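Why does residue order matter? Because the sequence determines the fold. Keep that principle in mind as you read this record.
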Amino acid sequence: MRVGIVGLVRGLYLGEWADRVGIEVAGICDRDPGRLADAHARFPAARPTTDWRELLTAGIDGVVLANDFDAHAPLAVAFLERGIHVLSETTACVSEDEGVRLIAAAERSTATYSFAENYVLHPHVRLLRAAVAAGELGPRLDLIEAEYLHSCSPEDTAALIGDPAHWRGRIAPTAYCTHTVSPVLALTAAWPVEVTAHRLGPGDRPAASQLTIRLSTGALAVARQGFLSGEVGSHWSWMSVRGSHGSAETVRGTGADAWSVRIRQEGWARPDGRTVELERTPPPYSLHGTAVDHHAAGTVALLEGFRATVERGAPPLIPVRPAVAAALVGVAGAESLATGSRPVPVPNVAAVPG
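Structure:
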């Protein structure tokens, strides 16, 4: 399997893991000549270019899109139309129209679209998903909370989000919500219906936001993302799930403890009448028989899944519709912020014609 990589900041990290997984990096692209040269030194057999369009005819099987956060969909559509499988590293779209076009392109293509949302596959989220799937929290989920927070100084935060020429300075405070919303959708097998967004912090461009999301199952999700105190060790990710018969949450710990999950089953919901509290630690994730650090496990799982999709026809781990749904929560959230935190419907992606 041969892939091209567009965007060589995060893309270089993905390329290095792709190489370890057994995927050949055959093409690399970045507008910055220095980054391109550094990546070419790492992958000397790969075709280097500053124009992503050259990869359309480079004989690759798939492409990893790691370009600017708000510029993925047009490239994804172009590669899908050439029958090239797409692994898109950040938000699927920045508008409903763009999302509809991406869904149509993916579902008429001979190739596939996969969303590279590694937080869905992080070790602590895997433990939560297993508990939910086993019915340990009851037949119904009522409240899910998720955080993706960075504890940075005001000066460092301003440097990251204050430059309008950089994508972090262009996007809305709600836009970077997929690390919270996608795990919620995966846990609940639900679609977002409505979102209400609130600013966290001062100014017209707050550093963080909170989204209250009504899901198609009737459950409520609360997602916090951005730059705010409370960063945790599990790759900036914390989650809590409250079901009809019990609850589970990731441990706010350090080191290996940060990836553990604490589960409580209520005694009144158990045949033996005993309230059970336990803590689970994720097993190591192995690649070629060697344990992978917990921080990288989600990325490795994604790349292995992408390879299985391209080479064996396995379904994408995160296909186009859930990817677009998560992105449109951020779009609707931005509208909510701009209109005084009023509730805004999220487009029904499940009903969009393919």
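The longest strand covers residues 141-150.
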